[in-house]
Write a structure and sequence with these properties.
Two copies of one chain form a homodimer. Chain A is an alpha/beta fold. Helix content of chain A is 34%, strand content 16%. In chain A, strands 3-2-1-4-5-6-7 form a seven-stranded parallel sheet, sandwiched between helices. A six-stranded parallel sheet of chain A has the order 10-9-8-11-12-13, with helices on both faces. Chain A is globular and about 65 Å long.
Chain lengths: 346, 346
């Protein structure tokens, strides 16, 4: 049987629409996997996502809108209903590809369809209890650095990004840009420090994930000209934002799990200055597509060397490593290995 | 087959130990059901609860300690692991009796063992989405008032309490008592108003569920003599507390679902003055075991009529309606009905 005729269920979260209107990293990747499989000729792909989601695959949904977009929902209610609908219909699929964290694992002993779980991040060490309780299943990590040593991974498959709204521009902008979720973890306040020390303008974009952090460490520095916050950006707005960018400042304070922002920036030709934590050294080619730094002073120093970075190299680095097609090619190998192992069991 | 040979799994929550050390209403009831079944001659009862739980039935646990007693746990991690272990072993039981809210329902389509869910309360209207998605299963309400009109209930089974640490005392104490969880819903601040208007002493006991509520509306009124807060009480401490009670003040501001506190108080011979909301009129016999009131002034007036209440009547009312044995007799009828319906399906 042609492997591309296998029936694949892609389980996306229901925090946001798939693909998300603005923020929603896991939904973005789940959507990209779905579209990528269809583009590469997979014939029977079903996306389980919010009902208002958009896909060229078959769409199945139980929850009307994402619980982050409709706050009348209790997140766990939508989550467990959504997950259980996939499980209830598991017999209709040859593989469930779970992109929705640990809860789906707890239904595994009750179904016979194999499941692949892409671990998009460990939000807390305690969730490892669920993973460690389910070692007889299939896992993929999104970077070599974001792995738990106790889990049996089949592979690392880097996230792939949709290049269609990421225009490559040879000419750099004249501002620093920082975007993503506004949170201490992402070091938004450090981007402000860098901008001030360099005397450059800074544009900040993204959802405010920690309002107290924003109010105390970000808001007091905002002004109409040199340091602006423009709110969340959709892909079209993001493209316009990156046009302004001399460099993207990404001084994350916790290990990055993958770092979609870095890949997107490089796709637009924008070099990235990132904290050398977690996956950053897997996503950025140090000194070729940006600079890995250890603190604000090194970031300031790196700004002075941005003109040594060839913006074409940034774009090519993404095209070779972080496209949807590359990601889905990676998952195809993983799916094939799963089908091989499952066939051996029978 | 003797119905009492059927294999019953009682699913208790894992927020607290079963039975709880102090607070833990659902664990209290689940524990009482378990012990009551054993006492009435059921031969194969398994309690699924925290590993440190105490029972005369078989104990199965996955989570060492309750997540409310060990804050290093993410509640959902412990919850889903605990529930999934029951589901994984569902084939070993003839009936699962779920006392752990809505999440277990989402595993139902994947198992064949029937499940009875006692709905201990709807914490939010949104959780009805899960219940309404699972109408082909069995439900019990804990009072006639705490019912959703869209659900197919088999019966109301009132909670039964363990009388072993509830000493009946003919002679009243000279203080007002308010206990339970300290929260606006339970009207702790109204108990203080009543005490002040009557010029009587008040003892408050229970866990602080809303610290801001406690700090602003309760704490400022506390003093060493007339209005005291003594913290949570275990069953032995509760018995000593009720010895002091002239009446228990229970001016709940939301409909009571059942009201263990009211039953416990009456068991000790203590009349209860309760807000006429929800199940209170099902638990209290108005003017015979206490008074149903609509506000603080009516409660103050009721204090003046407490001597018309016969404390023996309070005790007998509990013995006739709210003992563990009465509760389990009620569940035996429900179990029998479930087995009858399941046999018809085959």
């Amino acid at each position: 049987m042609d492997i591309k005729s296998k029936r694949i269920a892609i389980l996306s979260p229901v925090a946001w629409r798939t693909p998300p209107r603005a923020y929603g990293a896991w939904e973005t990747v789940a959507g990209n996997i779905t579209e990528g499989l269809v583009a590469r000729g997979w014939k029977d792909v079903t996306l389980f996502a919010t009902k208002e989601s958009v896909t060229t695959a078959k769409l199945e949904g139980w929850v009307e809108r994402g619980y982050e977009e409709d706050k009348s929902q209790i997140p766990l209610v939508s989550t467990c209903l959504h997950i259980s609908k996939v499980m209830e219909r598991s017999g209709e699929f040859d593989l469930i590809h779970n992109n929705f964290d640990y809860l789906p694992l707890t239904y595994l002993p009750l179904i016979t369809t194999p499941m692949l779980t892409t671990i998009h991040g460990f939000s807390d060490p305690d969730i490892l209890r669920v993973y460690h309780d389910h070692k007889d299943t299939y896992y993929v990590s999104i970077s070599d650095s974001d792995r738990d040593p106790g889990l049996p991974y089949l592979a690392t498959v880097y996230n792939g990004i949709d290049l269609s709204n990421l225009t490559f521009r040879e000419a750099p902008g004249d501002k620093l840009v920082h975007y993503g979720r506004i949170h201490n973890d992402k070091g938004t306040h450090l981007a402000i420090e860098v901008a001030k020390k360099c005397g450059m303008d800074l544009i900040i974009a993204g959802i405010i994930q920690d309002q107290a952090y924003f109010d105390t460490l970000i808001k007091p520095h905002l002004n109409l000209s040199s340091i602006q916050y423009i709110g969340p950006v959709n892909p079209v707005q993001r493209d316009a934002l990156l046009k302004e960018a001399y460099a993207v400042i990404h001084l994350n304070l916790i290990p990055e799990r993958f770092g979609l922002v870095m890949a997107e920036s490089m796709a637009a030709g924008v070099p990235v200055i990132a904290m050398d934590l977690g996956s950053c050294r897997e996503v950025i080619a140090d000194k070729r597509t940006g600079y890995l730094v250890k603190n604000v002073d090194e970031a300031v120093e790196a700004i002075g060397k941005i003109d040594r970075i060839d913006r074409n190299t940034c774009r090519h680095h993404v095209e070779e490593n972080f496209t949807i097609d590359r990601m889905v090619a990676g998952y195809e190998k993983v799916y094939a290995e799963i089908f091989r192992r499952e066939a051996q069991k029978k």
